[in-house]
Amino acid sequence: MKILVIGAAGMVGRKLVAALLDAGRVGGRDVAELVLADIIAPEAPKAGLPIATHATDLSDPQAAGKLIEGRPDLIFHLAAIVSGEAEADFEKGYRINLDGTRHLLEAIRLAGLSAPYMPRLVFTSSIAVFGEPLPAEIPDAFPLTPLTSYGTQKAIGELLLADYSRRGFVDGVGIRLPTIVVRPGKPNKAASGFFSGILREPLSGLEAVLPVEASVRHWFASPRAAVGFLLHAAGLDTAGLGQRRSLTMPGLAATVGDEIEALRRVAGEKAVQRIRHEPDPVIARIVAGWPQAFTTRRAEELGFVADRSFDEIIRYHIEDELGGRIG
Amino acid sequence: MKILVIGAAGMVGRKLVAALLDAGRVGGRDVAELVLADIIAPEAPKAGLPIATHATDLSDPQAAGKLIEGRPDLIFHLAAIVSGEAEADFEKGYRINLDGTRHLLEAIRLAGLSAPYMPRLVFTSSIAVFGEPLPAEIPDAFPLTPLTSYGTQKAIGELLLADYSRRGFVDGVGIRLPTIVVRPGKPNKAASGFFSGILREPLSGLEAVLPVEASVRHWFASPRAAVGFLLHAAGLDTAGLGQRRSLTMPGLAATVGDEIEALRRVAGEKAVQRIRHEPDPVIARIVAGWPQAFTTRRAEELGFVADRSFDEIIRYHIEDELGGRIG
Fold first, then answer.
1. Cα–Cα dist A245/A92, whole Å
2. Is-contact A160 A220, C-beta < 8 A?
3. What is the pLDDT of residue A52?
4. Mutate which of B163, B165, B246, B298 to test chain A, going by most A C-beta atoms within 10 A?
5. Residue A309 at interface with chain B, using a CB cutoff of 8 Å
6. Among residues B303, B290, B256, B266, which one has the least CA distance to residue B136?
7. What is the CATH number of the domain that holds A152?
8. Catalytic annotation present for A94
9. Omega of the bond prior to A272 within 30 degrees of 0, cis?
10. Band of the pLDDT at B326, cuts 50, 70, 90?
11. ipTM of the shown complex
12. pLDDT higher than 80, residue A327
């Protein structure tokens, strides 16, 4: 089948494309053709099948129509302005995260007017659709109460996905991803950056700063688990979703202390010694409002599978990013 | 203060304008100037203060900017394509109910860039933001699960209102109105039409058709109560709302049987005899998915007041629409 990946140059997008090519199949069908799009043209991996790449600004009302000209059977929509940037640049966040998503849905609907067309659309939402006051464990059916513009835009995307699916224009699945750890690459200024940093830097022989207390609890998935969610969503029998098209993905609820103990088990005391505790009240206050854990029975019953332990999450990082070697 | 009413030609809009002129004050301040807008120019009531009227298509991106040129202190946004029409004409519903609301919010935000501006915006949402499966009593914090395009558009409006308020662009209050009874005027084809029809027609000496069983339970407010909610929202201290800017309005949970008994008490057996029971399985199925009752503690604690009884709702109709006389 033909597959379109929007946001293919990002961390999760690149890993998803690699996994699609590696497996050669998704949702029980052969991967026959790929169209990869992002704000900068993604690199086309070498593969024995046609791969087109596009530099696309999804906020351009015409852009989505061009991307679906070949009528892909399966579309992954991963493109987004991240939380911090959507908060700093209000207009840009709405332009990409809301208008971009709506343009894509509209392009699909309009394509269906000339000849029947109802692709599977996998949309990445976020646990940022939930904001305090929150229970310690957030149930599957909990109000969308975003406290950021990014979370608002994702919540609106979920509502649009449900309505366009209900009307039969698209076959949508929204998946709310946990915070991804260990995120590869350089440290960034995201308030959540330390969750990855306190593992990634020590594993590469570098110092890392921990700005919060060890008791801080949050909700995690590895990049491998995230790709697994996307692939599973692509093949899901959506009859099981009913009208509620978006699902909180299963994750691992863990404290910063749990992270550190896993690091100690996998990489030893020397790695743990590279973490320096420098309390930052601003970050501590932001993180205090974040979800700590979810019950995700719906997703589990539909076959989505979480990481089993933080040790496993760390080992994945060592295998996938460090060539199996600890620095 | 200057007040803008968008949707001023509709049933609730006209009653709101009359109430504003009658009281001369709202939210503790004098009503100094009115701007009335609707898709057709509203009639300007005779009054001792400046009243401007506009025929405005809110889906035109420039329209909202023109309406707020005089920087109104208080804006009522009541304009909407109703549920049945938004379902029948997908594009029109999104154009007015989603784009129109967003254009208004954007016009307010952009006006604030040149000089500080943060008007109170009262937005009428709907209990259509909730869809089955629903509990018998829907609590204040319940997920937005609309099952119509209209409900989706209202839910998105609530999310936008909350984000624009959080960012300090507007001081928003969203109020989810119950089903309004007794709706004056001619019978219409709305699935909910009979809730008013079985009272309105007999009170005017006409026959009415009841398409469902007497046990059907739903959530109601009189036009007077609806206007009361709008006026109270205009003067509300929004500090009490926190980030959750939209509120389910208090209502009266009543069965069709309760309605009929109230009609008997107020207008006698002769009126009740004018109701003909003609079961309609299509309407029965639609109505079966609707909310039956809510707990509305948040709104009540904030001072919103529901009708006390169905007898009262019927008496309001007789006073306000029939000149005090039963047909």
1. 26
2. no
3. 97
4. B163
5. no
6. B290
7. 3.40.50.720
8. no
9. no
10. confident
11. 0.95
12. no
pLDDT tens column, B270-318: 999 999 999 999 889 888 888 999 999 999 999 999 999 999 999 999 9
Backbone angles phi, psi at B294, to 5 degrees: -135, 155
Is residue A119 one of the residues assigned to a domain? yes
Cα-trace Rg, chain A: 20
**Tens digit of each residue's pLDDT (9 = 90 or more) over B69-108:** 999 999 999 999 988 899 999 999 999 999 999 999 999 9
CA distances, A11 to each of A18, A321, B52, B281 (Å): 11, 12, 55, 52
Instruction: For residue B202, tell me if it sits in a domain.
Output: no
Q: Considering chain B, what is the average pLDDT of its residues?
A: 96
Domain encompassing residue A162 = 2-177+223-248
**pLDDT category of residue A133 using cuts at 50, 70 and 90:** confident
Only one residue has tokens 């001792």, namely: B48
Angle at B271 between CA B267 and CA B273, to 5 degrees: 145
Q: Is B61 on the interface with A (CB under 8 A)?
A: no
Report the percentage of chain A scoring pLDDT > 70: 100
Q: Pick from A142, A156, A243: which is nearest to B159 by CB?
A: A156
Indicate yes or no: CB of B144 within 8 angstroms of CB of A144: yes
CA distances from A7 to A34, A176, B47, B302 (A): 13, 16, 58, 45
Query: Phi and psi (nearest 5°) for A173?
Result: -135, 120
pLDDT exceeds 90 at position A118: yes
Distance CA A302, CA A246 (A): 12
Instruction: Tell me the per-residue pLDDT of B106-143, one tens digit each, with 9 for 90 and over.
Output: 999 999 999 999 999 999 999 999 988 899 999 998 99
Pairing of strands B252-255, B217-221: antiparallel
Both structure tokens of A162? 């449900």
CB B6, CB B37: distance < 8 Å: yes
Which residues lie closer than 8 Å to B187 by C-beta, 6 or more apart?
A: B193, B197, B201, B208
Would strands A246-248 and A171-177 be described as parallel, antiparallel, or unpaired? parallel
Give me Rg for the CA atoms of chain B: 20
Does some domain include residue B196? no
> Does some domain include residue A323?
no
Residue B123 dihedral angles phi and psi, to the nearest 5°: -110, 130
Question: Residue A72: which H helix or E strand, with range?
Answer: none
Dist CA A20 CA A67 (whole Å) = 19
B107 contacts on A by Cβ (under 8 Å):
none
pLDDT at A147 over 80: yes
C-alpha triplet B93, B97, B98: angle, nearest 5°:
105
Distance CA A140, CA B8 (A): 40
Whether the pLDDT of residue A15 is over 80: the answer is yes
Per-chain mean pLDDT for chain A: 96
pLDDT at residue A104 tops 90:
yes
Domain count of the fold of chain B: 1
Residue of A143, A160, A167 with shortest CB distance to B144: A143
| Predicted confidence (pLDDT) at residue A132 exceeds the cutoff of 90 | no
Task: Report whether pLDDT(B168) > 80.
Answer: yes
The amino acid at residue A238 is T
> Angle formed by the axes of helices B193-203 and B256-267, to 10°?
10
